[in-house]
Amino acid sequence: MIYDTQLAPMKTVPKKWQEFLAGKSETGMGYQVVNLTLEGGRKIEDVVIIQSALIGEIRGGDVSFDSERIVELEVTDKKWNFRAPPQ
Q1: Whole-model pTM?
Q2: CA torsion angle 65 68 70 73 (round to 10)
Q3: How far apart, in Å, are the Cα atoms of 78 and each of 16, 32, 39, 68, 83?
Q4: Does pLDDT of 3 surpass 60?
Q5: CA separation (Å) from 13 to 10, 16, 51, 83?
């Protein structure tokens, strides 16, 4: 198998949140849409989590944050077309 070295490594959510998400319903096949709250109160909305573990997409593009700083995670099941360009 050949891997593209240009791709950034995918972030994962900490094990605590993986276990939390594993018990929640999926927004679509294999993914959940969530809102995150980080230490300090910063909120990041419309985050796609794949297989309860991988941070796949964030509406509006790349948002840099340390996933170890997640203090709250809310499953919203808000569907959106993450292939469409941001508005």
Answers
A1: 0.80
A2: 110
A3: 22, 9, 23, 24, 15
A4: no
A5: 10, 8, 11, 22
